[in-house]
Amino acid sequence: MNNFTFINPVKIIFGKGQIAAIADEIPADARVMITYGGGSIKENGVYDQVIAALGNRSIVEFKGIEPNPHYETLMQAVNLAKRHRIDFILAVGGGSVIDGTKFIVAAMEYEGEDAWDILAKKVPVTKAVPFGTVLTLPATGSEMNSGSVITRAETKEKLAFGSPFTFPKFSVLDPETTYTLPLRQISNGIVDAFTHVLEQYLTYPVNAPLQDRMAESILLTLKEEGPKAILNPQDYDTMSNFMWCATMALNGIIRVGVPTDWATHYIAHELTALHGIDHARTLAIVLPSLLRYKQETKKEKLLQYGERVWGVSSGTEDERLEATIQATIAFFETLDIKTKLKDYEVGEDTIREIVRRFEERGVKNLGERADIQVKDVEEILTMSL
Amino acid sequence: MNNFTFINPVKIIFGKGQIAAIADEIPADARVMITYGGGSIKENGVYDQVIAALGNRSIVEFKGIEPNPHYETLMQAVNLAKRHRIDFILAVGGGSVIDGTKFIVAAMEYEGEDAWDILAKKVPVTKAVPFGTVLTLPATGSEMNSGSVITRAETKEKLAFGSPFTFPKFSVLDPETTYTLPLRQISNGIVDAFTHVLEQYLTYPVNAPLQDRMAESILLTLKEEGPKAILNPQDYDTMSNFMWCATMALNGIIRVGVPTDWATHYIAHELTALHGIDHARTLAIVLPSLLRYKQETKKEKLLQYGERVWGVSSGTEDERLEATIQATIAFFETLDIKTKLKDYEVGEDTIREIVRRFEERGVKNLGERADIQVKDVEEILTMSL
């Protein structure tokens, strides 16, 4: 096992009826801004529960944080919050609203000229306005970590940041808030969470059997519960299990002491930035090709994953590796998530553009062995055509 | 899955050489008290590393926190710390030193007449002096939770308390600090951690498959790594895996949303209080009888545990239940932990005394179904004779 540091101070308040509990989590005299997305929370009762819980607190609303939240939109929220001297933000929504809110709270306290530098120049965040979340879409795990991915619409850049100051103070996870999700978002959430686990698990062994089994626990549970969630998205137990899997997939607990990959995410972000393809779908496009391309260096973990998660135990090593990758693809396709670029009408032009951008940005040394260079990215994407 | 709240703000700093990292975790101007046990840390190099890391900070030492730490001893530490206006405590040792330190930091800020009331009268802790830990014995999980068990020597009472204010600020887990542990303590630690998991797992199903698998992950890893730790207690990877299992067994993560038992602990504490038997050994005495006594209401989880952890899959239901309990006993005995009262020269007198104490204290409704009464405790202990 490698040396590690772990900390995760987020308070999780899980279960039906728990939105009311935010009344005890936000200071009674707080000046609160609620951030949300397109407004579905006004149709499914979540908004009403939030307003009831906030009681007499002074409230400002910021509506319209889009999927892959835009820097441009978020800076409007920053201005609104500053104007109203907001001292607590409540993010109500999925990963985009929560990621966006992490940027807002950091940008509100940013003392440099342009808060975009937090992303582009990796300027460290040294303070932030406190915030909590009410999660309505299990997927990204943002509700229990300090990371955030932001898109600049103007330049089609999608960049990440994180800081000890951008952990939510609390997150409410009420599975009932997911009952009205479109199936497309449920599928996306399952694939997103599943891929988060694989990024932290399909690397190379470092004798960390507990972390391996914890990762496999999430994979096996998503494998079981995912298809059930599609069939019956109003089954409380199913949605509870899916929701908790998505949170556990990226709260840091399976990552301790082991190498992590993240090349799939790094490459996939470009497909969203350039074409607006759903994040989870871009992962499903890149991951299988990356696993095939890297199957030699990932062999031991791939074989273990195949056997323990998909029951792949017979055949030559090469056959088992391929069967394992095929099982992963089949799982994504069961969830109606396509895994080829052509399924999204994306061709070689886009690969060339991604190569150009990576060369311009000086991208190099991706993956757990820091051995994926731009030419490898080109080959991986070509395998996904 | 049941509703739940989870929070665990402890920073874990794991790995070889990490004691030096405490230099960055304790304020530079802190007045530090170091608490420790019998002094083995002065022989194995841990003390020297701690002193080096603390640098120029003002330091007071409190030596002599015994196993099953005594209220009487800890109150001496409270007085010493107050006299020196200590504002940070560093606990260096195993679960007893850490549990004891949690009581010290709470008692230092206690405003009532007698800090024993925190235990005996369950007076809530409302503030505490901050503290960190350097763990030297994987076992209790105290390094990453807020709970503590304290013994009053005078009355032979062993009672528990916990509070949001008694989480360590940080815990350093360096597996190399375990290299000089007596085998007896390694065995105890394995059984202690294993039983912690079972207390949170062997109850009844509530459709929480991820929590079940996470619990089984720890059990399977302890089953594998435990015997290796006994054979080769200076193998870094083995001790790392054991250490991380023990921490994960009681940091709250496997407990979320599921019922918990804890009757074994409740009963076993009396055997330590009355006879000074090692905590882990009292668990090994009580657990098998409790499982047999309650096998009807614990049936579904017992069968799952038997199959997934011990590979028990054939025979009638009764045969599988008994084979599962036998496998658990055999595991304890492999670690040289005896499971009968007579192995510790304890007889019916002690059972009568425990019954008397429980009746006097009005103990009732133990276990996940709150259905274990004093007469059941008597029967369970009689089965362990």
UniProtKB/TrEMBL annotation, chains A, B:
Start and end residues of each Fe-containing alcohol dehydrogenase-like C-terminal domain: 189-382
SUPFAM superfamilies listed in its UniProt record: Dehydroquinate synthase-like
An example molecular function term from Gene Ontology annotations: methylglyoxal reductase (NADPH) (acetol producing) activity
All copies of domain Alcohol dehydrogenase iron-type/glycerol dehydrogenase GldA, residue ranges: 9-175
Keyword terms: Oxidoreductase
Xref: InterPro entries: ADH_Fe/GldA (IPR001670), ADH_Fe_C (IPR056798), ADH_Fe_CS (IPR018211), BDH-like (IPR044731)
PROSITE patterns per the UniProt record, alphabetical: ADH_IRON_2
Organism superkingdom: Bacteria
Pfam families (UniProt xref): ADH_Fe_C, Fe-ADH
Any one Gene Ontology cellular component term annotated for this protein: cytosol
Similarity comment: family membership: Belongs to the iron-containing alcohol dehydrogenase family.
Protein name as annotated: Iron-containing alcohol dehydrogenase
Species, as recorded: Pontibacter cellulosilyticus
